[in-house]
Amino acid sequence: MDQIRLEKLTRDTVDDVLKLRVSKEQKSFVAKNSDSIIDAYFAMTEDKKSVYIFGIYNGKKPVGFLMISYNCDWRENLDFAKNSYYIWRFMIDRRYQGNGYGRAALKLAIDFVRTAPCGKAEYCWLSYEPENEIARKLYLSMGFEEKLELCKEDEEIPAVLKL
Ligand SMILES: CC(C)(COP(=O)(O)OP(=O)(O)OC[C@H]1O[C@@H](n2cnc3c(N)ncnc32)[C@H](O)[C@@H]1OP(=O)(O)O)[C@@H](O)C(=O)NCCC(=O)NCCS
Is 161 helix (H, G, I), strand (E, B) or coil? Predict the structure, then answer.
Protein backbone atom coordinates (compact mmCIF):
# COMPACT_ATOMS: atom_id res chain seq x y z
CA MET A 1 0.00 0.00 0.00
CA ASP A 2 1.32 3.44 -0.91
CA GLN A 3 -0.13 6.21 1.13
CA ILE A 4 -3.93 6.28 1.29
CA ARG A 5 -5.17 9.85 0.90
CA LEU A 6 -8.46 11.67 0.69
CA GLU A 7 -8.59 14.20 -2.10
CA LYS A 8 -11.40 16.72 -2.32
CA LEU A 9 -13.50 16.27 -5.45
CA THR A 10 -12.67 18.85 -8.12
CA ARG A 11 -13.28 19.28 -11.85
CA ASP A 12 -9.93 17.60 -12.37
CA THR A 13 -10.66 14.54 -10.20
CA VAL A 14 -14.35 13.91 -10.87
CA ASP A 15 -13.66 11.58 -13.81
CA ASP A 16 -11.49 9.44 -11.52
CA VAL A 17 -14.31 8.68 -9.11
CA LEU A 18 -16.95 8.25 -11.82
CA LYS A 19 -14.98 5.25 -13.10
CA LEU A 20 -15.03 3.40 -9.77
CA ARG A 21 -17.44 0.48 -9.28
CA VAL A 22 -18.37 -2.06 -6.63
CA SER A 23 -19.07 -5.69 -7.54
CA LYS A 24 -22.45 -6.82 -8.86
CA GLU A 25 -23.30 -8.38 -5.48
CA GLN A 26 -22.50 -5.10 -3.68
CA LYS A 27 -24.64 -2.82 -5.86
CA SER A 28 -27.46 -2.73 -3.31
CA PHE A 29 -25.05 -1.58 -0.58
CA VAL A 30 -24.10 1.82 -1.97
CA ALA A 31 -25.35 4.24 -4.63
CA LYS A 32 -23.39 4.77 -7.83
CA ASN A 33 -20.84 7.54 -7.37
CA SER A 34 -22.54 9.65 -10.05
CA ASP A 35 -25.84 9.40 -8.14
CA SER A 36 -24.07 10.26 -4.89
CA ILE A 37 -22.66 13.44 -6.42
CA ILE A 38 -26.15 14.40 -7.62
CA ASP A 39 -27.54 13.70 -4.12
CA ALA A 40 -24.82 15.91 -2.66
CA TYR A 41 -25.69 18.71 -5.08
CA PHE A 42 -29.32 18.80 -3.95
CA ALA A 43 -28.42 18.41 -0.28
CA MET A 44 -26.20 21.48 -0.66
CA THR A 45 -28.41 23.62 -2.87
CA GLU A 46 -31.92 22.75 -1.65
CA ASP A 47 -31.39 21.55 1.93
CA LYS A 48 -28.44 23.88 2.61
CA LYS A 49 -26.36 21.06 4.04
CA SER A 50 -22.59 20.88 4.05
CA VAL A 51 -21.28 17.94 2.07
CA TYR A 52 -17.62 16.94 1.75
CA ILE A 53 -16.88 14.77 -1.26
CA PHE A 54 -13.57 12.95 -1.60
CA GLY A 55 -11.81 10.56 -3.89
CA ILE A 56 -9.80 7.94 -2.02
CA TYR A 57 -6.34 7.56 -3.55
CA ASN A 58 -3.58 5.02 -3.11
CA GLY A 59 -0.69 7.27 -4.06
CA LYS A 60 -1.82 8.60 -7.43
CA LYS A 61 -4.31 5.82 -8.16
CA PRO A 62 -8.00 6.50 -7.45
CA VAL A 63 -9.39 3.54 -5.48
CA GLY A 64 -12.54 4.75 -3.75
CA PHE A 65 -15.10 7.39 -2.93
CA LEU A 66 -16.25 9.01 0.30
CA MET A 67 -18.96 11.51 1.11
CA ILE A 68 -19.49 13.09 4.53
CA SER A 69 -22.30 15.37 5.59
CA TYR A 70 -23.44 17.11 8.73
CA ASN A 71 -26.72 17.45 10.59
CA CYS A 72 -28.63 15.05 8.36
CA ASP A 73 -32.13 14.68 9.63
CA TRP A 74 -33.76 12.51 7.01
CA ARG A 75 -34.36 9.63 9.43
CA GLU A 76 -36.63 11.07 12.05
CA ASN A 77 -35.99 8.75 14.98
CA LEU A 78 -32.22 9.20 15.11
CA ASP A 79 -31.63 11.81 17.80
CA PHE A 80 -27.85 11.53 17.52
CA ALA A 81 -27.97 12.66 13.87
CA LYS A 82 -28.65 16.26 14.85
CA ASN A 83 -25.42 18.27 14.68
CA SER A 84 -23.44 15.10 14.03
CA TYR A 85 -21.25 14.06 11.12
CA TYR A 86 -22.62 11.45 8.77
CA ILE A 87 -20.51 9.17 6.61
CA TRP A 88 -23.05 9.19 3.84
CA ARG A 89 -21.32 7.21 1.08
CA PHE A 90 -18.23 5.05 1.20
CA MET A 91 -16.85 2.58 -1.33
CA ILE A 92 -13.65 1.01 -2.54
CA ASP A 93 -13.59 -0.11 -6.18
CA ARG A 94 -14.06 -3.88 -6.57
CA ARG A 95 -10.55 -4.27 -8.07
CA TYR A 96 -8.89 -2.82 -4.99
CA GLN A 97 -10.91 -4.27 -2.12
CA GLY A 98 -9.33 -6.43 0.58
CA ASN A 99 -6.02 -4.51 0.63
CA GLY A 100 -6.62 -2.45 3.75
CA TYR A 101 -7.63 0.68 1.80
CA GLY A 102 -11.16 0.77 3.25
CA ARG A 103 -9.91 0.65 6.83
CA ALA A 104 -7.23 3.28 6.13
CA ALA A 105 -9.73 5.59 4.40
CA LEU A 106 -12.28 5.24 7.19
CA LYS A 107 -9.62 6.22 9.68
CA LEU A 108 -8.84 9.32 7.59
CA ALA A 109 -12.58 10.09 7.42
CA ILE A 110 -12.80 10.00 11.22
CA ASP A 111 -9.66 12.15 11.53
CA PHE A 112 -11.26 14.65 9.14
CA VAL A 113 -14.50 14.74 11.13
CA ARG A 114 -12.48 15.29 14.31
CA THR A 115 -11.15 18.51 12.80
CA ALA A 116 -14.77 19.72 13.18
CA PRO A 117 -15.19 21.34 9.74
CA CYS A 118 -18.82 22.24 10.60
CA GLY A 119 -18.23 22.76 14.30
CA LYS A 120 -17.74 20.45 17.22
CA ALA A 121 -19.97 17.40 17.33
CA GLU A 122 -20.52 14.58 19.77
CA TYR A 123 -21.00 11.82 17.20
CA CYS A 124 -20.15 10.51 13.78
CA TRP A 125 -22.62 8.00 12.38
CA LEU A 126 -23.33 5.90 9.33
CA SER A 127 -25.66 3.13 8.28
CA TYR A 128 -25.43 -0.12 6.33
CA GLU A 129 -27.59 -2.85 4.91
CA PRO A 130 -28.09 -5.78 7.32
CA GLU A 131 -26.50 -8.14 4.76
CA ASN A 132 -23.35 -6.02 4.46
CA GLU A 133 -21.30 -8.10 6.87
CA ILE A 134 -17.88 -6.84 5.66
CA ALA A 135 -18.81 -3.19 6.21
CA ARG A 136 -20.51 -3.99 9.53
CA LYS A 137 -17.43 -5.77 10.90
CA LEU A 138 -15.16 -2.98 9.71
CA TYR A 139 -17.27 -0.28 11.40
CA LEU A 140 -17.63 -2.16 14.69
CA SER A 141 -13.88 -2.80 14.77
CA MET A 142 -13.31 0.95 14.42
CA GLY A 143 -15.46 1.70 17.46
CA PHE A 144 -18.90 2.29 15.92
CA GLU A 145 -21.78 1.02 18.03
CA GLU A 146 -24.73 -0.54 16.31
CA LYS A 147 -28.18 0.87 17.13
CA LEU A 148 -30.34 -2.09 16.19
CA GLU A 149 -33.19 -0.88 18.38
CA LEU A 150 -33.62 2.19 16.13
CA CYS A 151 -33.89 0.17 13.00
CA LYS A 152 -37.19 -0.86 11.44
CA GLU A 153 -37.51 -3.76 9.07
CA ASP A 154 -36.04 -3.02 5.63
CA GLU A 155 -34.04 -0.09 6.95
CA GLU A 156 -30.29 0.28 7.02
CA ILE A 157 -28.76 -0.30 10.44
CA PRO A 158 -27.40 2.90 12.01
CA ALA A 159 -24.14 2.85 13.95
CA VAL A 160 -22.61 5.64 16.00
CA LEU A 161 -19.08 6.61 16.98
CA LYS A 162 -18.55 8.93 19.92
CA LEU A 163 -16.02 11.56 18.84
C1 LIG B 1 -16.79 -1.99 2.83
C2 LIG B 1 -15.61 -1.64 1.94
C3 LIG B 1 -15.53 -0.12 1.78
C4 LIG B 1 -14.33 -2.14 2.63
O5 LIG B 1 -13.22 -1.76 1.83
P6 LIG B 1 -11.91 -2.67 1.69
O7 LIG B 1 -10.84 -1.84 1.12
O8 LIG B 1 -12.24 -3.93 0.99
O9 LIG B 1 -11.61 -2.96 3.23
P10 LIG B 1 -10.23 -3.42 3.87
O11 LIG B 1 -9.37 -4.11 2.87
O12 LIG B 1 -9.65 -2.28 4.63
O13 LIG B 1 -10.75 -4.54 4.86
C14 LIG B 1 -11.50 -4.22 6.01
C15 LIG B 1 -11.85 -5.52 6.70
O16 LIG B 1 -12.80 -6.24 5.89
C17 LIG B 1 -12.30 -7.52 5.57
N18 LIG B 1 -12.66 -7.82 4.17
C19 LIG B 1 -12.52 -7.03 3.10
N20 LIG B 1 -12.98 -7.64 1.99
C21 LIG B 1 -13.40 -8.86 2.40
C22 LIG B 1 -13.97 -9.97 1.74
N23 LIG B 1 -14.23 -9.95 0.42
N24 LIG B 1 -14.32 -11.04 2.47
C25 LIG B 1 -14.10 -11.09 3.79
N26 LIG B 1 -13.55 -10.06 4.49
C27 LIG B 1 -13.20 -8.98 3.80
C28 LIG B 1 -10.81 -7.42 5.70
O29 LIG B 1 -10.25 -8.68 6.01
C30 LIG B 1 -10.65 -6.44 6.83
O31 LIG B 1 -10.77 -7.05 8.07
P32 LIG B 1 -9.50 -7.19 9.04
O33 LIG B 1 -8.88 -5.83 9.09
O34 LIG B 1 -10.10 -7.63 10.32
O35 LIG B 1 -8.63 -8.19 8.36
C36 LIG B 1 -15.70 -2.34 0.56
O37 LIG B 1 -15.90 -3.71 0.76
C38 LIG B 1 -16.79 -1.80 -0.33
O39 LIG B 1 -16.62 -0.80 -1.02
N40 LIG B 1 -17.95 -2.48 -0.35
C41 LIG B 1 -19.05 -2.13 -1.24
C42 LIG B 1 -19.67 -0.81 -0.90
C43 LIG B 1 -20.10 -0.77 0.54
O44 LIG B 1 -20.62 -1.73 1.08
N45 LIG B 1 -19.90 0.39 1.15
C46 LIG B 1 -20.30 0.62 2.52
C47 LIG B 1 -21.72 1.02 2.53
S48 LIG B 1 -22.30 1.24 4.17
Answer: strand
